[in-house]
Amino acid sequence: MSSDSTIWFINGASRGIGFAVMEKLLATNPSVFVYAGARDPAKALALQQMALKYPGKIEIVKYIAGDIDGNKDIAKVIQEKHGRVDVVLGAAGCGSYLGPAADTPPEVVRTHFETNAIGNLVLFQAMLSLLKASKNPKFIPLSSIGGSLTFTISLPLEVTAYAMRGFTFENEWIVCFPLSPGAVETDMFASNREMDKTGVLENVQDSISPEKCATLLVKIVDECTREKDGGEFVDIDGSKISW
């Protein structure tokens, strides 16, 4: 593997946005190598087919959000094979409940927080030395506009359970920001549309395919800089979302 290769780690890579980004990278960038994280690699048939289509360009690894030892094991695999990681894309997320604060079960919040917040913290810690070994390290967890502290005041969508700037300000050597892919036609979006009682998601007319999202996302990652994007909350169109 050439030292000029770009090494990616993508979790949630077995479907949805994570899979689409991986597919886009492999189809357009001959010098990319992807570590694809999946909760159950043995059942990730689409990933296995992708590995056959692009031999020597993908390694499928078992990823569970918040699993400290499991994340460290992934880092060891990457260390032994490449010694660094250039881009970490956190595409694995949980969005299994919609409801107001008065009705949201605490256990639902715990599950979402474990996956969406603690999961990214554990991943960052596991990948830290590998990111430091990169000449242009980028750590980009996917979020959603539901994670904004201010935007949802005017948005009547009940996202109590879904609600990291510290990574950026504590580490001057890295480009780090949460990225909102917007309304993407994934299984999670379809499920949330069914659960939504406010009508907000039902009326969304500008949702995009995972493939379109992947094209926009890869462009943002390729062009992002610490000066322009570090510590911001970035939308898939490149604009900034209010924290």
DSSP strand content? 5-15%
In one word, what is the shape? globular
**CATH topology type:** Rossmann fold
Domain count: 1
Overall pLDDT, averaged?
Answer: 88
How far is it from the N-terminal to the C-terminal residue, by CA?
40 Å
Structural class: alpha/beta
Give the class-level CATH name. Alpha Beta
Number of strands: 8
Structure description:
GO terms for molecular function: oxidoreductase activity. This is NAD(P)-binding protein. Keywords: NADP, Oxidoreductase. Belongs to the short-chain dehydrogenases/reductases (SDR) family. The chain is an alpha/beta fold. It has one domain (6-235): NAD(P)-binding Rossmann-like Domain (Rossmann fold, 3-Layer(aba) Sandwich), CATH 3.40.50. The protein is 39% helix and 13% strand. The chain contains eight helices and eight strands; from the N terminus they run E-H-E-H-E-H-E-H-E-H-E-E-H-H-H-E. It has helices spanning 16-28, 45-53, 68-81, 106-132, 165-169, 187-195, 210-223, 226-229; strands at residues 6-11, 32-38, 58-62, 87-90, 138-141, 175-176, 179-180, 234-235. It has a six-stranded parallel β-sheet, sandwiched between helices. The protein has a two-stranded parallel sheet with strand order 7-8. Strand 2, helix 2 and strand 3 form a beta-alpha-beta unit. Helix 1 crosses helix 7 (210-223) and helix 3 (68-81) packs parallel to helix 4 (106-132). The longest helix is centred in the middle third of the chain and has 27 residues, at 106-132. It is globular. The protein starts with 5 loop residues before the first strand and ends in an 8-residue tail after the last strand. Mean pLDDT is 88; it is low at 159-163.
